[in-house]
Amino acid sequence: MAPVLALERISKRFGAVQALTDVELEVDAGEVVALVGDNGAGKSTLIKVIAGVGPPDEGRIMWEGRQATIATPSDAQALGIATVYQDLALCDNLDVVGNLYLGNEMTTMGVLDEVAMEKRSRDLLETLSIKIPSVRIPVASLSGGQRQTVAISRSLLGDPKIVLLDEPTAALGVEQTAQVLDLVERLRGQGHGVILISHNMVDVKAVADRIAVLRLGRNNGVFDAKTTTQEEIISAITGATDNAASRRSRRLSE
Amino acid sequence: MSESPVDPRLVVSEQGLTGYLGEFRRKVKGGELGPLPVVIGLIVIWLVFQSLNSQFLSAQNLSNLSVDIVPTGLISVGIVFVLLLGEIDLAAGAVSGACAAVLAVLNVNMGMSPGLAILLAVAVGAVLGLIHGFFFAKIGVPSFVVTLAGFLAWTGFQLWVLGPNGTINLPSDGFVAGLTSTYFIYVIAAYGLAALGVAGFLAVSLIGNNRRRAAGIPYRTTGDIVFRTVVLAVVAFGAAYILNLYQGLPLALLIFLVVVVGTDFVLRRTRYGRSIFAVGGNIEAARRAGINVPFIRISVFVISGSFAAVGGIFAASRISSASQATGQSNVLLMAIAAAVIGGTSLFGGRGTTYSALLGMLVIQSIASGMALQGVSNSIQFMVTGAVLLAAVVIDSISRRSQKAAGRA
Ligand SMILES: Nc1ncnc2c1ncn2[C@@H]1O[C@H](COP(=O)(O)OP(=O)(O)OP(=O)(O)O)[C@@H](O)[C@H]1O
Ligand SMILES: [Mg+2]
To answer: In the prediction, which pLDDT does A209 show?
Structure first.
């Protein structure tokens, strides 16, 4: 069966910066793919391509075996792609409920159903064991980590097929990081595909099935998380050693 | 998180007065001042002018005040929409004048029925707003510049429509003039409206609260709802009593109140309104949430243009004529000042259309009180300017303390 999401030869440039060159990536249902690479490698740019925020200049996006056009965030949402952006993209002036449901508000006869939204928000935050003083305060008055958990919860409200997480644990404490990693595993268990960006190799090795490395906007190997050592991945990220190691593990993983 | 139905951080708990004070302190610290500064300011202004001249709080003066706030107040409602986006509409005054001129020409010179003429005049306002919105949202010209150009262009359009005379008188017993000269003389009208408003508020509060309780989410205590209802009842019936002492409920005030309550509903209770707040709060987040940002922006300028037209029609109605002066000089600035004084942020994302009502009450009270004292326009402008500055200072400080209370 075709993977849920497959990127083929994706390229994108910003003025003089060639951010992505011929990037390929596949994600299956029930699979966690970690996307790693140094700062500026193009990870967030790739996420934005998939999320419809910054469509690619060249290349194809295949969804469940068919070519898909993702030109706007709504296109991506309609397919079943949910995204947690690195910069979170929350409206500081709206409360937690307002942010969770932004763009997908529940209504009865055209009127916002605040009670239903608040109830589901509380339930969701509770199942994720997220501690927030109140779901009715503006997110401006939340801590960085709390904001991040709101952004993550937001992506889970629909029933997405693919969840894109751009450094979801960057601002989180030990406990909350563990919870997010649990959550990633739960998503996989429920048959969702996950793309996880992280700079923390321990986390990546803990939850990912495959690890895709981006270097200077190009693919630099896809590794099996079980059989590849941390050193091999790091050398692929930094390009410090000859790529024999990465070539070898690519062979093994295929 | 506690299982108690009342989350002390969310709503007022049962502790009565101490609860209120705690809640109040938390809000002020967090920069959520709401309508508090303007209400206090209004009370101070009224007490000062009443002590200077006992005519100030007379039924006749307050009744006139309640009609005088309507034309600019209606323009201000549209301005609130624009400010919520964090944008500005400098053309609203010119649009109001131009549309008043269109109305007068259609109704008087061309003999069109007043209803149709009003409809067309408002449609012209909507189209002018559409033009602003298009250049702003699609071409990317800053709203400040687009509407400044609009201000000049529509002022010229107004002069052209009015022709060489520069003034078109509306029949003083006609339909248009009646918009601001009609009073519901029967006491039942004002009291009925007050009763309707209070009962409606109580019903909505109780039903909402019951749904919240049934859903197991924090709800207000009955005491809290009763307290709020009593405050509203005192204000509503007090106003009705005073209006009935003079000529009864003014039609213009009724229309203005319906507009304010209606637009507030749209802003706070519909997806469209939520989208406006989202675009005003974080445009990129709104875009990524799938909101059609250009549509929201254009529609808001259409709304602003339409309400400017309605305001212009009421301004013409008030003096039974449309002239070159309609919508000119300080009308625009007063409409913007009213929104800001009433608590709508200039920085976008925070505000309500009630601020048009509250802000206009402040501005018009100052104007009326000064007029009673025989103070010259110059002083009046300076005082209004100081009040506006105070309002913006409060807005800026509360925004800063929200930021400080915000990210860790
Ligand atoms: N909107 C933009 N305009 C211009 N250049 C951009 C833009 N977005 C990204 N870039 C450039 O594209 C390259 C890739 O950036 P990207 O944000 O994808 O990196 P990243 O891998 O997510 O890095 P990090 O780990 O720091 O988040 C960088 O060189 C960056 O400067
Ligand atoms: Mg990034």
So the answer is: 94
Nearest alpha carbon to residue B326 among B128, B62, B65, B75 = B75
Strand pairing class (A81-84; A162-166):
parallel
* Residues 6 or more apart in contact with residue A180 via CB below 8 angstroms: A149, A152, A165, A168, A169, A172
Which long-range CB contacts under 8 A does A13-22 form with residues at least 24 apart?
A13/A57, A18/A217, A19/A45, A19/A217, A20/A45, A20/A46, A20/A49, A20/A56, A20/A217, A20/A218, A21/A217, A21/A218, A22/A59, A22/A218, A22/A219
Q: For B403, which residue in chain A has the nearest alpha carbon?
A: A140
B354's tokens: 């009630």
Q: How many CB atoms lie within 10 A of CB A16?
A: 5
Supply the residue whose CA is at minimum distance from atom 14 of ligand 1.
A42
Where do the domains of chain A lie, and which CATH numbers do they carry?
A: 5-89+159-253 (3.40.50.300)
Residue-by-residue DSSP string for B170-223: PPTTSHHHHHHH-EE-SHHHHHHHHHHHHHHHHHHHHHHHHHHHHHTS----HH
| Residue A126 in contact with partner chain B when CB distance is under 8 A | yes
Q: A134 and B289 in contact by Cβ < 8 A?
A: no
Give the per-residue pLDDT at B8.
42
**Per-residue pLDDT band at A129 (split at 50, 70, 90):** confident
Cα(B105)–Cα(B401) distance, integer angstroms: 51
The arithmetic mean of pLDDT across residues A78-89, rounded, is: 91
Domain B51-185+247-402, CATH: 1.10.3470
Nearest-CA residue for ligand 1 atom 30 is: A40
State residue B10's pLDDT score: 43
From A43, A50, A165, give the residue whose CB has the most ligand 1 atoms within 8 Å, as the site to mutate: A43
- Residues 137-156 of chain A with CB under 8 A from chain B are 137-138, 140-145, 147
Residue nearest to atom 2 of ligand 1 (CA): A14
Determine the residue of chain B that is closest to A116 in CA distance: B215
ipTM: 0.87
CA-nearest residue to A74 within chain B is B290
pLDDT digits (tens, 9 = 90+) for B325-340: 888 878 999 999 999 9
A42: tokens are 């193009």
Asked whether the beta carbons of residue A77 and residue B290 sit closer than 8 angstroms, the reply is yes
Partner residue opposite B217 with nearest CB, options A83, A107, A118: A118
Q: Where exactly are the structural domains of chain B?
A: 51-185+247-402
Instruction: Kindly give the parts of chain B with pLDDT less than 50.
Output: 1-15, 406-408
Residue A113, chain B, CB below 8 Å: the answer is: no
Backbone angles phi, psi at A224, to 5 degrees: -80, 125
**Coarse DSSP helix, strand, coil percentages of chain A, rounded to the nearest 5 percent:** 35, 25, 35
How confident is the model at residue A211, as a pLDDT?
94
